[in-house]
## 1
Amino acid sequence: MAAAAAAAGGGPQPPQPELPAPGLALDKAATAAHLKAALSRPDNRAGAEELQALLERVLSAERPLAAAADSEEAAAAGGGGGPGAAEEEALEWCKCLLAGGGGYDEFCAAVRAYDPAALCGLVWTANFVAYRCRTCGISPCMSLCAECFHQGDHTGHDFNMFRSQAGGACDCGDSNVMRESGFCKRHQIKSSSNIPCVPKDLLMMSEFVLPRFIFCLIQYLREGYNEPADVPSEKDLNKVLQLLEPQISFLEDLTKMGGAMRSVLTQVLTNQQNYKDLTSGLGENSCAKKSHEKYLIALKSSGLTYPEDKLVYGIQEPSAGTSTLAVQGFAGATGTLGQLDSSDEEDQDGSQGLGKRKRVKLSSSTKDQSIMDVLKHKSFLEELLFWTIKYEFPQKMVTFLLNMLPDQEYKVAFTKTFVQHYAFIMKTLKKSHESDTMSNRIVHISVQLFSNEELARQVTEECQLLDIMVTVLLYMMESCLIKSELQDEENSLHVVVNCGEALLKNNTYWPLVSDFINILSHQSVAKRFLEDHGLLVTWMNFVSFFQGMNLNKRELNEHVEFESQTYYAAFAAELEACAQPMWGLLSHCKVRETQEYTKNVVRYCIEALQDWFDAINFVDEPAPNQVTFHLPLHRYYAMFLSKAVKCQELDLDSVLPDQEMLMKLMIHPLQIQASLAEIHSNMWVRNGLQIKGQAMTYVQSHFCNSMIDPDIYLLQVCASRLDPDYFISSVFERFKVVDLLTMASQHQNTVLDAEHERSMLEGALTFLVILLSLRLHLGMSDDEILRAEMVAQLCMNDRTHSSLLDLIPENPNPKSGIIPGSYSFESVLSAVADFKAPVFEPGGSMQQGMYTPKAEVWDQEFDPVMVILRTVYRRDVQSAMDRYTAFLKQSGKFPGNPWPPYKKRTPLHPSYKGLMRLLHCKTLHIVLFTLLYKILMDHQNLSEHVLCMVLYLIELGLENSADEESDEEASVCGPERCHDSWFPGSNLVSNMRHFINYVRVRVPETAPEVKRDSSASTSSDSLSSLHNSGTAQVFSLVAERRKKFQEIINRSNSEANQVVRPKTSSKWSAPGSALQLTTAILEIKESILSLLIKLHHKLSGKQNSYYPPWLDDLEILIQPEIPKYSHGDGITAVERILLKAALQSRMNKRIIEEICRKVTPPVPPKKITAAEKKTLDKEERRQKARERQQKLLAEFASRQKSFMETAMDVDSPENDIPMEIATAEPQVSEAVYDCVICGQSGPSSEDRPTGLVVLLQASSVLGQCRDNVEPKKLPISEEEQIYPWDTCAAVHDVRLSLLQRYFKDSSCLLAVSIGWEGGVYVQTCGHTLHIDCHKSYMESLRNDQVLQGFSVDKGEFTCPLCRQFANSVLPCYPGNNVENNLWQRPSNKSIQDLIKEVEELQGRPGAFPVSISSETNLSKEMESVMKDIKNTTQKKYRDYSKTPGSPDNDFLFMYSVARTNLELELIHRGGNLCSGGASTAGKRSCLNQLFLVLALHMRLYSIDSEYNPWSKLTQLVEEMNSQLGNEEQPEVPILYHDVTSLLLIQILMMPQPLRKDHFTCIVKVLFTLLYTQALAALSIKCNEEDRSAWKQTGALKKNTCDAEKSYEVLLSFVISELSKGKLYHEEGTQECAMVSPIAWSPESMEKYLQDFCLPFLRITSLLQHHLFGEDLPSCQEEEEFSVLSSCLGLLPTFYQTEHPFISASCLDWPVPAFDIISQWCSEINSFTERHAEQGKALLIQESRWKLPHLLQLPENYNTIFQYYHRKTCSVCTKVPKDPAVCLVCGTFVCLKGLCCKQQSYCECVLHSQNCGAGTGIFLLINASVIIIIRGHRFCLWGSVYLDAHGEEDRDLRRGKPLYICKERYKVLEQQWISHTFDHINKRWGPHYNGL
C-alpha cells in the first residue's frame, strides 16, 4: 500500500506546464488569487484544469495513513516533514484557495454575513446540559440549548433541565418540533427576506475545492480500514480517526459558517456526477484504483453487495416463493452472502439454526433481500455515512453530519441515506464492542431525523421506512432465538428470544426500537402501518418471538445453584420492543373512524395466537410448575379490544373468537395470577430471589399497565363470555385449592402442602375479588382511573410529588395524552390530597414536602382492592390498612380494628355485563357456603382474610343481582338443574335462603366425621344425581369443570372426540397415599343466611347478638345507605350484608327474622385429643415465654428512657459537673460517677479512674468570624471574589507574625492565643465510664467484624449508652464537689495579700493533690488524653514557635485549647451572655475536667519567675533600661499582651482546685491592664486636637480623690505618657486612615471602653461559671457590662446605680495607678522609637467579632449551576466532572478530580483540612446536594435547594427549578457552628482521601 501511495503522490511530480512547481510553494495567496481570477472568466476551462491539477498535487502530496503504516518508505518518497506536516500543508492550501487569495478569517466573516439562520441547530454530545419544555414542544423529544432557553420566555411552563444521554441538537426555530411562541429572541425573526443574495464569486472557489477535499477524506477512510479476518481492533480505527481529526474539524468549522456555506456543502455532498467522476477508480491513477478496490472489499465483507457486481459474486436470484431467510442461510452451500453476516460467530451453528429459523414468515422475499443486503452509493454523502458506520460512529463525524441539518435539502437527502443504510447500521451495532456508545450516537442522529413528522412521512412513502425498520428488527432478533420449552418441551415448534444473549442483556436493540416508537408517534406513519396487512403479519411474528420468553420452572428439590438475572432483560424487552410500539399504535385509534385498524390488528393477533397454541402443542391443561410472565400477543389483543369498546364503539362480540379459543386464551394469564400467589406463598423459594423480583416487576408501576392490567382485562373478557361454573372451577383448580373446599374437617390435598393451602386460598379469593371489582378497562374514564391510582398510592404512604408521578402508571407512549404533570394530574392531586410542607426537626432527618390523603378520601374513596393490585411489597397493604385504622380512630368513626371497607364501583360498560354471571353461578355459591361453614366450625387453614373476601364476594353478588327477582322464582325449568341439587337456581339472592341438610363428603378414615360404619363409599366423581334436598349433596369442582369443558367443546366443534385428549395425567386420579378415603354423610341444616347470623354471634362472642335493625326502624329499608355501616369490622360487614339481602327480597327478610327467633343452641365444647392437647400446651408455653420477654423488654426500655431523660435533658439548667450530686449529706462527699459499661457507681480514684466520653475535634469555626456585618455571598460571576483577609484567623495570624518579628519568641508565645484555626474543641454526651472498662470495650469493637461507620483504630467509638460518636475519654479528677462551698466563702483579705498568695502558689511546682512523680493510672490517663488532644489537630496548627519543639509551644497550645472551648461556647450562646442560665448549648460541659487536665500539664512547665507576667502586673520594677543593653530581642510589652490569654495562663498555673478569692484577685489585676489597653487604643483612634483637649481636662482632675477611677484622668495620663515616645508622631501620613469622623462625646467614649472590655468579661464569667458552678445572671444587652462585672466581683458591693454607669468604677489598682501605667507605657515608647507604625497597629486590637456564618446563597439554584458547571479547574483548565464549591470560603474544587491530587489526597479532602481543619462543607454543583467531610469520614447531608413541591432533586434528575430553603440552610449552619455533624448525621463512610 505504501508503495502505491508513493508512486501516486510522492515520486517526481509529472511536469505541469501551467504552473512551475517552486512558485507554488512560494505564495499560496497569490496562487489562489490568480486561480480565482482565472475561474471568474466566462471561459474558465483552463482555470478549472489548472486548479484540478493543483488540488491533485496538494491533496495527495502525502498519504498520512500509509506513512503511519510504513513511515520510512513513505518519508523517503514524499520528502521531509513527516505525515503531520503534509497534512497541515494541505489544510493551509485549502483554506487559502477557499478564501481566493484573501485572509481566511475575513473570508469566514464574509460568509457569515449571509447566514439566514432561522434555526439554531447547535449540536451537543453526551452529558451536555440542555432544556426541554413540554408546554412548547410538539414532539416529545424537543430540546433547547441553555442559551436559547434562557433567551426565550418560558415562565410558568412545564420545563426541566436534563443531562443529555446520547447527545442532541437544539430545536429552536424549528416549527415542526416546537411552537413558535417558545423560540428565543435570535430565532424568532424569519430572517430570510432581509439577507442579501450571496455574491457568486464569494463561494466559487469552495465549489471547486470541496469535492476534492471530501474525496480525499473518503480515500483516507478507505485506506485506513483494513478488513482483517477478525473484527478490526478498536486501536487501529482510533488511530485513523486521530489522524483525520484536523480534516473533520475543518469541515465542522465550515458548517458553522452558516447557511450559505452549508448549501455549498450540500451541493457537494449530494451531487452524483461529482462522485461518479472522482470515485469510479477507472482512471490511470493506481492509487484511486486501489482505494476503490478496498471500498468494494469493505462492502463485501459487511455482507453487502454492489448491485452491479451481483453476478461477479455468484449470487442466485431467489425464486419469488421461498422465504428469504431460507435462501440466505440454508439453501445449501451456494456461495451466497453467507448467513446474515459472515463475521458473526454466533450464527455459524447451522444445525440449531434450522430449528431456529424454520417458522419465520416474512412479508415478501424480494423486498427483504434488497433491504438487508444491497447498498449502492451514488454520492459522497452516502459513502461518508457508510464509513461513519464502519468506524462505529466517531463523535466528530456525527457532529459534522448533524451540523449540516439546518439545511433543508441536506436534511431530506441525509434522512434517505440513513434509511438506506439502516440494515447495515444494525449489523455493525450487533458486532460492536462498544455497543453502548454506538447506540447513543445512532440515536443522537436518528432522533433528529425521525421526530419530524413531515420528514418521517416522506421517507415512509419514498423509501419504505416501515418495511425496512420492521424487517431489520426481525432480522436482529433472529440471531438469538432458541426453542421454547413452554408446555411441550420435546415437540414445541415455537422459538423465543434467549434473554441471556448480549443482544437482550445489554439492550443492544434499544436504538432501533426507539426509532420505531418515534416514527409510530406520527399519525400519518402509524396509519400506513395499521393499513398494511403484510407489515402487521411481520410485526406479529416479531412480537411472537417474545411470547413465552424467560420461562421459569419451579425447583422442587434443590435450591437453584445459579440465580439468573435474565429477567431484567426480558421485562425490558417486552416493555420496549412490544408494549411501547403497541401504545404508540393505540394512541392513533381513538375515534370511531379508526375501527378498521383495530379489526386488522385483532385479526392478525388472533392468527398469531392460534399459531402459537399450535406450535406449543397446547390443548387444554397448562404444563405444571411452569410460568412465563411474558405474553405480549395476549396483551396486544387485550389492549386493542379495550380500545375498540372504549373509543371506537365496536361491538365486542364481533371481534371475539369462538369459545374454544377463549378457553385457551384465559389459561396463561390465569396461570400467571396463580403463580403470583404461589410465589407469595413461598412455593418458589428454591428458585431464589429472582422469582420474587419477577413477581414484583410484573405489578410495578412502570410495567403494570402493559402487563398485569391487560392480563386481568383479558380474563375479565373471557369470564364474561365463558360458562361461569367452568370459569370459577378453573380458578380454584389453577390455585390448587380444590381439595380444600370440602365440608369435612380433614382432607387431603394432592397438589399442595398443607402449609401453603391457606395463602393459596386467600390468593384465589383475592383474585376473584379483583377480577370482579376492577373497572380499569370496563368503563372508567381516564380521569377516574387517574384518581383511583392516585388514591391507592397515597393510601399506602404519604408521597412526594415526584414519587407520585413515578408511581402512577401512564401510557408509556409520550403522545398518549396523559402526560405526567399535566393539567389533570395536578387538579386530581389537589382534589384528593393535602400538601404537608417539609418539616425540620433540628436533630432529625430532613423531611421532604409530602402529599397526604384528605379525610374525605379515607372516608369514601379508600379502595383496598386497588391497593392490593398496585402493591409491589405486601407490607404496603398492611401500611394502608394501618393508616385507615388510624384515620377511623382519630375521626372517631370506629374505635376497633376495621376490616377493609366495601367500595361502590363504577357501573360496568354494557359489553361486559356477562362478568357478573360469575357471582350468580352455583359453583361459586357452593364454594362460599362451604367456606362459611368451615369458618364457623373452626377448620384449619382459614383466616380472617378468607372470611373477609367471602363476605366481599357475597356483597358484590347482592349489589349486582339481576333486577328484582320474583319470590315465586322457584319453578325453574327442569333440565337446567339436572346436574346438581345443592341450590335451586343461580341467583345469589334466592340461593342465600336455601337450606342444605345433608352433604356427602370424602374424608380420611381418621377424620372425626367417620361415625360407625358410614354409608357405602361412592366415588366422588360419579355424581349421584339425587334430586330432593333431603338427600346428601355431593360436589366436585374438577368433575364440574371437565364436564363443562366437554359441553363447550362439543358445542363449538362437532368432531369433539378428536380435540379432547383422554386425561392420562395422574394428577386427578385418586392419590395412592397411605390415607384411605371413605365417604361420610354430614348433617348440615344451614343456609347461607343462617351461617351469616351464626358468624355474627361468633364474631361478637355473644349469643343472639344479631337483631334485625328494621324491626325497630322501618326507615332503614327505605333509605339503606347508612353511614354507620360503611366502616367497621366483620360484625359490621355481616350486618350490612344481611340488610342488603333483606332489602332485595321479602322472603329473605322473613327468613332472617325467623332464624333470629329461634334461640341458637350454645356451641358444644370441643373434645380435645391428646395430640391436640400437646400442641395446645406448646402454644401456651410459647405464649407465656413471649409475655415474659415483652415484660423484660418493656422494663429495659423504661429504664433506658428515664436514663435518657436525665442524661439528655436539654432545657433544664444543669449543674456544671455531669454527675449525680448527692445532695442529702451536707458533709464533704466525693463525686459519684456511674459507669455505663459495667453499671457500677462510685468515685473516681487514682487506681481506677473514671472518665467522660468525649469527642475531640479540630475546628476552624472561630477563625471564620468577621468584623463586618455585611454577609459574604457565594460568588456567581467572575467579578465576585472572596478574600479571607478580614477573618478572625487571618487577623490573629498577622498579629502573631508581627510580634515574632520584633520580640523574643518565647515571650511572643505567651502574648497571644492560637487555635482560631485548627483549635481543639472538646464535647461530651455527659456519660462516664471506668477507663479500664473502656479499654475492654474498644477491644471488643476491634474484634467486631461488622462494618462500622467509624475507625476503631483511630480510637473512635460510640457511647455505649446513647450511641453518640466519640473518640477519647477525659479522666475525671478525684475530688469532692461540695468543697466548692468552702472555696467560695468571701475572705476579708486585702488585695495585696491575695496577690502575694497567688504569686507563691504559682511558684510552688508540685502543688497538685496528685503527685505527678508517682506513675498512677490516673496520671497515665491524663497524659494519654493530652496526647489525643495534641493529635487531634495538624502540626501546622500547633507549632508556631521559631524553634521547633520548644516547650513554649506546648504551653501556648494548652492554654489555647481552653480558650477555644470558652470562645466556642460563647458563640453557641449567640456571642453574649445576656440569656444567662446554665450552658445553653444544651450539652453537658466538660470544661471543668478539661481545665484540670490542662492545669496538670501546664504546671509541668513552670514559668521562670523573672518572665512571669504576674510580677509585671503587680509590682513596679526599678531599673528598666538595663535589659535593653543586651542585643537579644526585647520581651513583648505588657500592653501588647492578650489579656484573656494572660487570664488563662495565670489560672492554669495555679494549683487546682482554685480558691474563689484567688480567682477574683487575678481578674481584678488583669482588668486594670485591659482598661489601660482600652485607653491607649482610644487615644490612637482620635485626632491630635481631641488628644490635647483630653490631656488638659484630665490633668486638671488628677488630684481628686478617686482620680484612679476616672477615665478622663487616666486617659489624659496615658496620652501624656505615650506622647513621650513616637507613637503619635506619624500623624501626617496616616491622618485620614486612622481618624474616625465622629466627634467623641463622653457617652461614645464610655461605650468604646465598655465594648473593648466586654469580650474579656464574657470569657471570664463563663470560666467562673464552669470552675465554681455559679449560675450566670441574665440581663438586657445594654446592661451586660455592669451585670457581668458585679458577678465577677469587680464592682464594689456598695456601688450605687443611679447615675449612668461608668466602667472605670470597676478598677481596683493593686499598686498606684499612675506609676504602673507609666511603667507599661515606657515599654511601648522604647519600641516605637524604631517602629512607630507597627507599634500603633499592635495597640489597636479588633475585639468585636461578629458570629461566624456560611456564605449567603442565591435564591434560585440555576444561578449557581449555570456559573459553576462550566467553570474550569484552575490546575488543568478543563471543566471538572464533579465540580464542588466550599460553603465556608467559596473556593471552587474538583471532587475526586485527579488533576488536583496532591500526595494521594484529592482536592476536597485537602481543602477540608486547610479551610476547616478537617471539616469541609461542599455543595456538589451537578447534584445540588451538600457533602460533609469530617476527618477521614464523609456523609451526604442533603440539599438546601428544594423544588416547588418541597422536594430535593438529587443529581438534578428531574431538572425542575430549585429554590433555597432558608430553614434547611439555617440547620446546616447551626450544625457547623455547634460541631454536631457527627451526632446528627447517621450515614458516614470512609472517603480514603479520594474526594
## 2
Amino acid sequence: MVGELRYREFRVPLGPGLHAYPDELIRQRVGHDGHPEYQIRWLILRRGDDGDGGSSQVDCKAEHILLWMSNDEIYANCHKMLGEDGQVIGPSQEIAGEAGALDKSVLGEMETDVKALIQRALRQLEECVGTIPPAPLLHTVHVLSAYASIEPLTGVFKDPRVLDLLMHMLSSPDYQIRWSAGRMIQALASHDAGTRTQILLSLSQQEAIEKHLDFDSRCALLALFAQATLSEHPMSFEGIQLPQVPGRLLFSLVKRYLHVTSLLDQLNDSTAEPGAQNNSSPEELSGERDRLELEFSMAMGTLISELVQAMRWDWASSRQGPLARSSCSIFQPQLAEAGPGLPPTRAQPSIRRSRRFRPRSEFASGNTYALYVRETLQPGMRVRMLDDYEEVSAGDEGEFRQSNNGVPPVQVLWESTGRTYWVHWHMLEILGFEEDIEDVVEAEDYHRAVVGGALGVAVPSWRWKPMTELYAVPYVLPEDEDAEESEHLSQAEWWELLFFIKKLDGLDHQEVLQILQENLDGEVLDDEILAELAVPIELAQDLLLALPQRLDDSALRDLLNCHVYRKYGPEALAGQPAYPTLLEAQAQPQESAGAAREEGKEPPTQYPDTPLRRLMEGCGPLGRTFLDLEHALSSGGPQETEIKPFLLQLQRQPQPFLTLMRSLATPAANKPLHLTVLRILMQLVDFPEAPLLPWHEAMDACMACLRSPDTDREVLQELMFFLHRLASVSRDYAVVLNQLGARDAISKALEKHLGKLELAQELRDMVFKCEKHAHLYRKLTTNILGGCIQMVLGQIEDHRRTHRPINIPFFDVFLRYLCQGSSVEVKEDKCWEKVEVSSNPHRASKLTDRNPKTYWESNGSAGSHYITLHMHRGVLVRQLTLLVAGEDSSYMPARVVVFGGDGPNSLNTELNSVNVMPSASRVVLLENLNRFWPVIQIRIKRCQQGGIDTRIRGVEVLGPKPTFWPVFREQLCRHTRLFYMVRAQAWSQDIAEDRRSLLHLSSRLNGALRQEQNFADRFLPDNEAAQALGKTCWEALVSPLVQNITSPDEDGISPLGWLLDQYLECREAAHNPQSRAAAFSSRVRRLTHLLVHVEPCEAPPPAVAAPRPKGRNQSHDWSSLATRGLPSSIVRNLTRCWGAVVEEQVNNFLTSHWRDDDFVPRYCEHFHNLQKSSSELFGPRAAFLLALHNGCAGGLLKLPFLKAAHVSEQFARHIDQRIQGSRIGGARGMEMLAQLQRCLETVLIFSGLEIATTFEHYYQHYMADRLLSVGSSWLEGAVLEQIGPCFPNRLPQQMLRSLSTSEELQRQFHVYQLQRLDQQLLKLDDTEKKMQGGQEASDKEHKGEKAEEAEGAGVAAAMGEEDEEEEEDEDLYYEGAMPEVSVLVLSPRCWPIASIRHTLNPRTCLPSYLRGTVNQYSNFYSKSQSYPALEQGPQRRLQWTWLGRAELQFGDQTLHVSTVQMWLLLYLNDLKAVSVESLLALSGLSPDMLDQAIGPLTSSRGPLDLEEQKDVPGGVLKIRDASEEPRPRRGNVWLIPPQMYLKAEDEEGRNLEKRRNLLNCLIVRILKAHGDEGLHIDQLVCRVLDAWQKGPCPPRGLVSSLSKGSACGSTDVLSCVLHLLGKGTVRRHDDRPHTLSYAVPVTVMEPHTESLNPGSSGPNPPLTFHTLQIRSRGVPYASCSGTHSFSTFR
C-alpha cells in the first residue's frame, strides 16, 4: 500500500542518505505553557525512497516518528501545513467530506440496524453452542463487519454488548467464528489508533479472560494485536537473539502494553481541544491530570518490570553491581587518558572477594592450592578465574557445576560466555556462596587514596576546566548551587518507592501505610495524598528496610535494581552494593516447611547423600525446601494440598527449580541425577500450579541434553516423555521448543536410535504444528519491545519539551539494559550465515559439527582449495580458528591465507597469512578485527609434504553478541536529531525576524544542554551512550544554529556578526557592572562560550592506532565512539564570522585614521582591544586568534597601494623611534620597550601580505641609518627574531649578518696589521746587521767592492719597495697618538642603495694618518678576496662612502659626529674659516647631505658658527670663540644628524607602485600566453625575473631608482602573485594548486618600456661598498696655535 508524499520539499536530514518528511497531523493538545501543540507524523525515508526519481509514492508502512510541535516550529519547518487561518491542516479533508455527506436520518437508520444485528448475533451464538455454526450467524457477523468499517458508526460499536459478542466469538471452539471475530475487530480498528487500542484493551481486560480463552483463542487475539501494532512501530531487531516468551507471559505483556497506551492517549487527550467547552474547574482538571500521570507512571513501571523479566535481563545481571557512569560532560570528547596531574575520570570498580576462603597467595605451591580447591569447592559456589585459559580470561566469574577425572577436570558456568567450560583446579579462586562474598577496594587503591587525602590532593570537578580553557562549563550550574542535598525524596524517587508499596498484598500494604501514617502525624492517606506526599529521607530508609521481607522474588529483584534502593538502601548507606540472592536467603517465608518443623521443634529430616542433595546444597537454604518437595513427591500418592505450598514458594523463589532443570545440561556421566530430575519434573507437570513455573527459562538445558551425542538412551526416553507431557499440558511450551529448534534435534535423535523413542514422533509433530505460533510470538515480542522503546523515546521528548522530570519507575533500569554494550561472545552459526567450500560441498557440514574426528576433504589441484564464510551483518570477528590434525600427514595445511571483501567477487584484501606447523592442532587465523567484512575466505595455498588435497577438522568463529544498543542508539539519535533540528529551525526563524532575539539564544541553549546533561547523568549507564546523545544533540541543535546565525543576509551582515559588532562598540561602557552594557556583554559572552566550549583548547595528539580492548566485557561497536573535537563546520562558521567582524573593524579604523600622526599607537591599542575581546568571547583558542589575524590582514589588503605604503612606513618609523628611545634607559626606556613590544605583535600580521614588501623597504632604510649612526645592540636582533617573517627578502637579517662579518674582518685586519709591523721591524734588523758588517776591514779590495754593490742594491730595493708602499706606511712613521679605526663592509645586496651612493675619496678627504689605515685595509681586503679557489663571478672591490660615525676631542668635550662632520671639523684644524661652497667642491657631497651635517655643528651645542656673507654662497664656517661662552662645556656632546624619515607619497613611494604595476603586467602577459593550461608557480617566477632582466622594462626614472636589474627578486614576484590572486585576476587549479592561470582581465598601470640596461651585453659586476668607523688610541694632540683643534680618537 502506497501513499503520496505531500511535503517532500520540507525534509530534515537524520543521517547519511536518511531524511524525515512531515506527513500529517495526528492530534493536538494544549501544551504545558498553555499554547496549542500538534502531533505530526514524520516519515523516515532513505535516499531513493523519497521520490527523488520522479515518483512521489511512499509505502504507508515506512518508519515514522511522532513529534509534538508548536505553531512556531510548524511555521519554521513546514509552513504549508498551516491553513489560511494559521491553524494546522488536519488529515484527509475528503474523508471528512464523505462523512459529512451522510444524512442524519440515514445514519440513524444504520445505527438501529447495527443494534438489531448485534442482538441477533448474540441470540444465534447462544443457540449454536457445541454445534457447527449456522450460516445465518456467519452472515450476520459479516454484515456487522461491513458496518464496522464505516467510521461514523464507530460510536455504536462501543456498546458493551459488542464486547460480549466478541468475547463469545473469540471463546468459541469453531475456527470460522473466531476468524469472523477477527475480521470485525480489524474493521473496527482500521479507523485510528485510539479506537484500535480501546477495542484491544477492552477485550484484554475482561474479567477472567484467561479462563475463557484457550490456546487458539489467545493466539488469535495476539495475532490481531501483532497485526495492529506492526505499522505503529516498524522496528527491526535482526541479528539479536530474543528470548522465548510463553504465550501466557506475552498475553500479560500485551495487556500491560495496551493499558499503558490507553493511559497515554488519555493524557494526550485530556486537554486536546484548546477551544473545547469544558465545565470543570482548573483545579479539577489539574487533579485529574495528576491522577492520570500517577496511574500512567505505575502502569509503565509494571510494564517495564514484566518486560525486563520476560527478556531475562534481571537474571543476566542479578549478580552484577549497578553500573555507575563517571560524571563528565556529554558534549565534550573524552580523552583516552587523564591529563597530567589529574586522576582518571572513570571510577575504578570494586573487587569481589571471599570472606572465609583462602586465596592462592597463601599457599607454598600450586599443587597444594589445587588440592585445597578440590576438597573445598562445592556445586553452586561462585569462582573466579586466575589465569587466561583458551576461551576464559583471568577475572571472569562463574558458578561451579561439577568435576570428574578428565582433563581439565572442573566444569564452570562462566558469565562471560554464557555457557560451561572446563578448566583446571589451580586456575580457580573460591568466592563461595553469595553470603560469603564481599566487595572491597584493592589495598593499593585504598592506600593511594589515603595518601592522596593526607597530602591534600583533591579531585578536581569536571565542571571547572583547566586554566588553559574557559573556566566553567556554561550549561552546568556551579556546584554550590546544586550540591545541596534535599531532606526529602524527589517526586520521581517517591513514586518509585510508592510503586513497591502498591505491589504489596492487603495486610502488608496496610502495615506499610501504618508506618507512613505514624511518621506523618496520623494523616489519612488516600491515593491523591499519596501521590503528592513529601517523604523524608529517614522515613524512606525505614520503608526500604521493611519492604524486602514483604515482596516476592521478582518484585525483590526489581527493588534491588531500582534507583531509590541503590541510593538510600541499607547496602548503599553501608558502602556495599546489594546482591539479590543474599536478600533472598534472608527473606525466606515463614510458612515454609522447614520453619514449621522448627516451630514444632521437630528434628530436621536427614536425606541420604544423593546427586540431587549435592546439587541442592549449592542453592543454599532454599535447596532444603526443594529436597522436602522431592521427599513429598516420592512418598506414595502425594496430596495436592501437600505439594501446593511448595509450588507457590517455587513461584516466588524459583532458583532451586531452575537449578534442577539446568542440571540436565551437565555431562552424560550424571545419568542418575538426570533420571531423578526428569522423574521430579514429570510429577510436577501434572499439578495445576505447575504451568506458572518458569519452565521456559531453563528449556535450553533440555535442548542441550537432547542434542548431546553422549546422552544415554534411557535418559533421552524420559526426556521425551517429559517434554511431550509438558507440551500437552501447555502448548506454549511446544512453541518454545519450536523456537529452540527442537524439531531438528528430535529428528536427529530418532535417526540415531532408529526411531525407537516413544512419543518422539508425536512430540516432533506437535512442535512442527506450532511453527506459525512461534513466528507470531517472535513478532509479538518484537512489537512489544519496539512499542516500549517508542514510548520511552516519547517520554524523553516530553521531558525535553516540558522540562518536567521523568517520574516513571525503572526508567533508568530499562535504559540501562537497552544501552548495554556487547558483553557476551557467541560462536559459529550465530556469527555466519552460511559456509561454502571449493569442492565436496556435501561434506561442508563437517566443518561446523564440533566433532574433531570428522573432517572436510577437498578435491582439486594444489592451491585451489578454499572455505568461504558469509558473515552476519555487523559481526566483528574476535577470533577465527582453523582445526587441523597432525595425523593427516600430507593432507594437513602448511600455508593458509585469509582474504576479506564485500562480496564473493571482491575478495581482494589480504587479512593475514599463516604458516602451519606440523604439530599444530588449532591455528588462529584472525584476531580482533576492527572492520566488518561481509565475506571472509580461507585459502589453503600449500599442504604439508607437498600434498595436493587438504583436510580441515573444523572452523571456529568467535565474535560479539549482538545487543540492543545499536538499535536503541539509532532510534534515540533519530528522535533527538529530529527534535532539535526542528527546534533549531524555529529559533533561527525568530532570529531572522528579529536580531535582538539572538540575546536570548544563550539561555535557550543553556536550558536545552543542561537538560540533556542532567538526563544523561540520571538515566544513561555509560559514557558511550552519553557521548552518543551529546554528540547528536550538539550536531542537531548547535550546528544548524551556528550556520544560520553566521550566514550573511542581503546586506552582507550575519546576525552573529551584528551582535559581535555591538559587543565591540559597547566594550568600554561594559566596565561598569551596573550598566546595561555590562548585562548585554555578559549575554554575548555566555553565548560564544557555549558555542565553542566543546572544542578542546590543546592541540590534538598525534594519530595513534587505538588499542582494541582485550576483555570480554567490552563493546565491539567501534563506530559508536564519540568523535573527538568540535565539528569542523561549527569552527569554520564561527571563525569566518569573527574574521569578518574584525576585518570590518580594522577597515573602518584604517579608513578613518590612516593619516593621523598617532596612527600606529592607536592602531596597536585597537588591535590589543580586539585581542582581548577575542579572548573574552572565545577563550585562548588558536582558531579564533588566527581568524583575528586573518581579519586584520583582510582590512590591510583593502587599502590602496599608496595608503598601504604610508601605513607600512608609519610602522617602520614607529619601531625606529621606539628602538632609539629605549636607549635612554630608566622608566622612560622601559615604557618605550613596552610600546615596542605591543607594536611588534601588531606588525606580525604583515607576514605573508603584499604590504610586507613595502614595510621591509622602509624598515631597511631606517635600520641602516640607525646602525650607522648609533651602532648595533641586542635589541636589533631581538626585534628581527620576533618579526622576521614580515621581511620577505630577509634584508634586515642580512644587514645584521654583514655587521658581524665586518667585525670578524676587523679582527683579522688587526692581526694583519700586527704581522706587517713585525715584518717591518724584522727588515730593519736585517738592514742594521748588514750595515755593521760593511765597516769591517778586508784584505781584498774586490771583495769590498762587491759588498758595496750588494748593499746598494739592497737599499735600492728597499727604497723601491718603500716607494710602492709609501701611502700605506704613512701611519707607521706617524709620531702622534694613532686613532682607532674600525671599518664596516656593507653590501648593496642588503643595504639600501640610496644610503651608500655618495663615495669618499680618501686621498683628498682624509688626513694622512687615517689615509694609511684605509689603504692598509683596502690591501688587506683585496688579499682576503684573492683565494686560488674557482671564482664564479668578478672579484669584489671596495668603494669608500661617507657613512659612519666618529668621536672627536674638542677641549674638554667629546663630540659624537658623523664621518662627514668629522672631515669638516678636521679640515678646520688648518683653516680659520672655510666656505660651504668650497666644502661642496672638495667633498662631492650633495647640498642636502652637507646641510644636514652642518646643522647640528652650528647649533647651540655645536663648536662652529655659520656666517652669512653676500659674496659667498652658503656662508662661511668658522670655529666658535671659546671666550664668548659663559663657561666651558665638558662631557659628551651628540651632534650626529637626526634621522630623516621618508614619505610614502614622495617619488620613492610612487616608484614602488610603478614596480608593482610593472610586475603585475609581466605576470598577466606570461599567464595569458599559456592559456587555460597555466604555469607552475616556480616556472612563472623564473620567467618574470628573466623578463625583468632582459625584456621590456620601466622608464628611466624608475630604472635609476631601482638601481637597474638588481631591484627585483623572487619575493617581489610572489608578492604580486598574492595580490593578483586576491583580486581574482589569477586563479589556482583545484586539482593542481601549484599551477596558476589567467582568470579575468585586469586594469594595470603599465609604464612605457625601454631597455633596462641599454647598450649592455650583460649585467654589471656587483659592487661592494665600504664605510669606516674611526677610533683613536692615546691622548688627543693639540694644534700649534692656541685655539681649540679637533682630534679624531674614535
